[in-house]
């Protein structure tokens, strides 16, 4: 009779295998002129989905990339703005490299401090 490892031991091994890590989707709720969570930490390969809860009231928000976390006016040169789709009220974007992304909402940043950031960590 051959020896067989218990099932639980197989599960334990698998959970420690980095190659099996599945990319996640993180939701950011956009409501009341705020991004929640305001600062989100993710891993490279993960997707962020912004959901505009104010869309039902006809309020448009944008997710616009900034140079830093202080400015409300500067779009980062050479990068796409990833504005929320005005028809759907949601936006999904996958981040593939370790970096810090600062973003803001064009109509509400200066008045309401409507901005956020994403910290992308390497896998
Ligand atoms: Cu806004």
Question: How would you briefly describe this protein structure?
Answer:
The protein is mainly β.
Supply the CATH class.
Mainly Beta
- Give start-end ranges of low-pLDDT stretches: none
Mean pLDDT, rounded to whole units?
81
User: Which fold name fills CATH's third level, the topology?
Assistant: Immunoglobulin-like
- By CATH, the superfamily comes out as Cupredoxins -  blue copper proteins
Q: Specify the structural class.
A: mainly beta
**Main sheet properties:** 4 strands, mixed
Main sheet: which strands, in order across? Answer: 2-1-4-6
Q: Tally the helices.
A: 2
Which H/E pattern describes the elements? HEEEEEEEHE
- CATH architectural name: Sandwich
> How helix-rich are the residues, as a percent range?
10-25%
Number of domains: 1
Small ligands present: copper (II) ion
- Strand proportion, as a percent range, falls in 25-35%
Would you give an account of this structure?
The protein is mainly beta. It has a single domain, classed as Sandwich (Immunoglobulin-like), CATH 2.60.40. The protein contains two helices and eight strands, in the order H-E-E-E-E-E-E-E-H-E. It has a four-stranded mixed β-sheet with strand order 2-1-4-6, with no helix packed on it. A hairpin with a 2-residue loop joins strand 1 and strand 2. The radius of gyration is 19 Å and the shape is globular. The model has no long low-confidence stretch (mean pLDDT 81). Bound molecules: copper (II) ion. Copper (II) ion (CU) binds at residues 33, 61, 105, 107-108, 114. Copper (II) ion binds next to loops.
């Amino acid at each position: 009779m051959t020896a067989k490892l218990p099932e639980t031991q197989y599960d334990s091994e698998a959970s420690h295998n980095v190659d099996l890590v599945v990319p996640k989707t993180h939701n950011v709720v956009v409501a009341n002129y705020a991004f929640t969570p305001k600062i989100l930490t993710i891993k490279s390969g993960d997707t962020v989905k912004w959901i505009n809860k104010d869309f039902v009231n006809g309020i448009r928000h944008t997710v616009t990339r900034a140079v830093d976390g202080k400015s409300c006016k500067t779009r980062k040169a050479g990068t796409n703005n990833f504005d929320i789709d005005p028809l759907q009220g949601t936006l999904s974007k996958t981040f593939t490299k370790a970096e810090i992304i600062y973003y803001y909402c064009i109509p509400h940043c200066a008045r309401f401090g409507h901005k956020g950031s994403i910290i992308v960590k390497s896998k």
